[in-house]
Amino acid sequence: MLKVKSKPKPKPKAKPKARPKVGVVGLGNMGGGIARNLARAGLPLAVWDTAPRAMKPFAGHSNVTALHPGEMAGCCAAIIFVVPASPEIDAHLKGKSGVLANADARPANSARLALYDFTTSDPAYTKRLARRAAKKGVDYLDAGMSGGAAGAAAGTLTLMMGGDKTALSRTRRYLKPFTNKIFHLGPSGSGHTLKLIHNMVCHSCFMATVEGGRMAERAGLDLAQMIEVFNVANARSYASEVRFPKHILNKKWDAKSRVYNLHKDLGMAVALGKSLGTEVSHGEATLGFLKKAIAMGMSEKDYALLYRDFEKIRKTRKG
Length: 319
Hints:
Number of helices: 15
CATH superfamily of the largest domain: NAD(P)-binding Rossmann-like Domain
Largest sheet: 8 strands, mixed
Strand content: 5-15%
Order of helices and strands: EHEHEHEHHEHEHEHEHHHHHHH
Helix content: 40-55%
Shape: globular
Number of domains: 2
Distance between the termini: 94 Å
Radius of gyration: 23 Å
Number of strands: 8
CATH architecture of the largest domain: 3-Layer(aba) Sandwich
């Protein structure tokens, strides 16, 4: 009896990926955490980074597509830029393949594209970018972040927002997977202004705690005990509660931010303060110390090392 071979069943066609609703440009310590939270939330996501290796971890996600920012502009409701500073965003906005030129490719019934600037930048530059975007019918919102890489990974960032409140309300759902609190502060530039003030205070507190720690050790006191006391007393701060216990007392020196970043932020904050005619002497003192660290070649070093190398930095005449 002849056996009739049954025809193999055709393999089911893979479902086409849904059109991305939100894009993330820049997949470093901060952007990578933000994108992972969006992917876990199941949102149709587009990602891009100038370093192809940064996009590899997203290759296996069915709801994630690799797209150039200009391509994102044609399909996404919101694009989040998590890049070093305004010039990098500026470069992505320009030209025929840029975001602004391709925002017109969106379906006719689509709401306005919203761009989120998650950099720490000069508010004046931010306002220029926002004006340019507005001319193309694109909303531009500046968002200062607080929470660091750990907050981005855990989905607990705090955002300080500037820009159109209606645009924020329209696209807020794309921010929820990686945020705890969102504060709308006012018009364009407001978010970046408060972020600079925030960072000036934060970094100055860190350096004050570093000085206190060095003083305690010089006096024969235990640094860990000093931090323990601070954390149940009035000298407590983010530096004492997080940075010292997690990155300095254990000598891991892994705060995951470069000395360069602190120097850049303090430089902009001090310049902003002076332009406003306000007192920034504590910020200037912190900036002066960071200039010495930069002069010593510490630009790319983790800033937790500012404690370890404090005496060397203090004694240098450079900066």
